[in-house]
Amino acid sequence: MEYVEKELNINGLKPNKGHMALVELEKMGILKAVITQNIDDLHQVSGNKNVLELHGSLKRWYCLGCGRTADRNFSCECGGIVRPDVTLYGENLNQAIVNEAIHQLEQADTLIVAGTSLTVYPAAYYLRYFRGKNLVIINDMDTQYDGEASLVIKDNFSYIMDKAVEELKNSNMEKH
User: Fold this and answer.
1) What's the Cα-to-Cα distance from 98 to each of 60, 114, 142, 161, rounded to whole Å?
2) pLDDT tens for each residue of 27-52
């Protein structure tokens, strides 16, 4: 696990303005779920409550021998191999999380897809479950789904979401 400790070290990472904007949207009752491929736990650190981690998290570890879990790498008394709770290439995604993600996509009226090329499968495939009217893609590069989107914004997600939440708050204040 030296590779994970050295190359995938998430210690010291902090949520950015985009993460914090999603928290605000959740508090406003606008955001129902965050479906992420990230394994850094930053959505939870920032304060989001309903986070579906398709690829797991480096913040959770478990023993392949006995199933013991911890929030960091550990040596298990049973002598089993300990690994992070992340999905590696070739492994299946957690079906319960996939099912909940699909449910959330089917219920959503608006879907914001951000910071992904939409080329990693099977996650990119899940867009087909979205039945809502507003597909918004915020990315700094083209994606294969841009033509299907209601709105495509070619810019930095953190910057755009921070400004969008600021505008929402201002418009709500003006109404009251």
Assistant:
1) 18, 18, 25, 25
2) 999 999 999 999 999 999 999 999 99
Q: With 0-12 CB in 10 A as exposed, 13-18 as middle and 19+ as buried, what is 92?
A: exposed
What is the tens place of the pLDDT at every residue in 103-113? 999 999 999 99
Structural domains present in the chain:
15-55+93-175 (3.40.50.1220)
Cis amide prior to 122 (ω within 30 degrees): yes
Catalytic residues: 55
3-state secondary structure the chain: CHHHHHHCCCCCCCCCHHHHHHHHHHHCCCCCCEEECCCCCHHHHHCCCCEEECCEEEEEEEECCCCCEECCCCCCCCCCCEEEEECCCCCCCCHHHHHHHHHHHHHCCEEEEECCCCCCCCHHHHHHHCCCCEEEEECCCCCCCHHHCCEEECCCHHHHHHHHHHHHHHHHHHHC
Tokens 């879907």 sit on residue:
111
**Residue 51 near residue 97, CB atoms below 8 Å:** no
CB 160: neighbour CB atoms within 10 A? 19
